[in-house]
Specification:
Layout: H1 2-17, H2 41-44, E1 57-58, E2 64-65, E3 72-75, E4 81-87, E5 92-95, E6 101-104, E7 111-120, E8 131-132, E9 135-136, E10 139-147, H3 153-156, E11 163-173, H4 181-186, E12 196-202, H5 204-207, E13 217-223, E14 231-238, E15 242-245, H6 246-251, E16 279-280, E17 286-287, E18 292-293
Parallel strand pairs: 1-8, 2-16, 11-14, 11-15
Antiparallel strand pairs: 3-6, 4-5, 4-12, 5-7, 6-7, 7-10, 8-9, 10-11, 13-14, 13-16, 17-18
Bound molecules: 2-acetamido-2-deoxy-beta-D-glucopyranose (3 copies) and zinc ion.
Length: about 300
């Protein structure tokens, strides 16, 4: 009789713990949250278990120098725009006008910007998705782009190389980055899941490193880092991190997951890369005395890089 009761209890606990579930990050995985953490995302979509998944650890000594990885040509990135920012329960997203485009950098064609969002840790601790030689940065921004001919991400994801993501790391600095003041202030209005706010006077180039500091980057073919984990995504991960003060990094953890708990560790762990190539740009910025020439001296000089 007692054994029977125990089994009943076990069965009911099992049912409670495996109810219909949404995806979530590892920190959210508890019995009562009923959500599927990164290890179980493939149960929601088999693509999450394929072999070209993102993020990855980039082993710099294994990267392949590719002279075709020239500087990017951005259009609209310097214009001020109004963005709708949202706490979507997994991160904070911000819309970007689709008239903003990027080309060059050995991309197949022109891609237009759709949105950007962030991945972070706890109060400035490790939180980026990609890692470089095992080092995890405090935060990472993804600017999601789709090929010009598409009208939605959903459609662009159905085609190999339909989506290109630019990834930027953050590093902790001693002083606040004033260019992020507005964006970080807006986070206070986004504490609860599904909250939205309009932010005007934002410009992408303000949020990014200078163009000279965007010539060094890594390129590989991977996937979305959240379910559906769709593959065929063209990844660019920039080497140069963006500085933010500790306080600014902490501000992101004021956001809340759906269950009201602090939104922390919003990153997928690195995925096995199965030996697929990761390329690196080989650009050296040449500054001439009268003109600032952003050129790609892809010679054997290797001036600005250590490897
Ligand atoms: C993060 O910092 C805030 C304020 O400094 C603190 O209240 C909170 O407990 C910290 N969170 C964690 C998980 O350490
Ligand atoms: C590029 O980055 C370096 C190192 O962080 C910095 O000292 C330099 O000012 C940056 N260049 C520009 C033009 O912002
Ligand atoms: C995710 O995958 C499921 C099943 O394959 C599909 O029904 C759904 O439309 C996909 N969602 C997106 C946003 O592509
Ligand atoms: Zn992302």
């Amino acid at each position: 009789m007692r054994a029977h009761v125990t089994r009943l209890l076990l069965v009911s606990v099992w049912i409670v713990c495996t109810g219909a579930a949404d995806w979530c990050y590892q920190t959210q995985v508890t019995c009562d949250s009923q959500c599927k953490g990164p290890d179980s995302w493939h149960e929601l979509n088999g693509d999450c278990k394929k072999n070209r998944q993102s993020p990855i650890n980039i082993v710099t000594r294994k990267t392949i120098l590719d002279h075709k990885l020239t500087p990017f040509i951005f259009s609209g990135y310097q214009e001020a725009f109004s963005s709708t920012m949202k706490n979507n329960g997994h991160t904070v997203t911000a819309t970007v006008p689709q008239s903003f485009t990027v080309r060059g950098g050995n991309l197949e064609s022109t891609y237009k910007a759709v949105q950007f969002h962030f991945h972070w840790g706890v109060n400035g601790s490790a939180g980026s998705e990609h890692t470089i030689d095992g080092e995890q940065y405090p935060m990472e921004m993804h600017i999601v782009h789709m090929k010009e001919e598409f009208d939605s991400l959903k459609n662009a994801l159905m085609v190999k190389h339909g989506v290109a993501v630019l990834g930027f790391f953050y590093e902790k600095s001693n002083s606040a980055n004033s260019k992020y003041g507005k964006l970080i202030e807006a986070l206070t209005k986004l504490e609860s899941t599904d909250a939205t706010t309009m932010l005007s006077g934002l410009s992408l180039s303000n949020l990014l490193p200078s163009e000279e500091n965007m010539t060094n980057y890594y390129r590989y073919e991977g996937s979305l880092t959240t379910p559906n984990c769709t593959e065929g995504v063209v990844w660019t991960v920039f080497e140069h991190p963006i500085p933010l003060s500790n306080e600014q990094l902490v501000a992101f953890t004021s956001l809340k997951f759906k269950d009201g708990k602090p939104m922390i560790k919003t990153f997928r762990p690195v995925q096995p890369n199965h030996g697929y190539p990761v390329y690196r740009s080989g650009c050296t910025v040449i500054l001439l005395s009268y003109t600032v020439l952003l050129a790609c001296a892809c010679s054997a000089l290797g001036l600005s890089r250590l490897y």
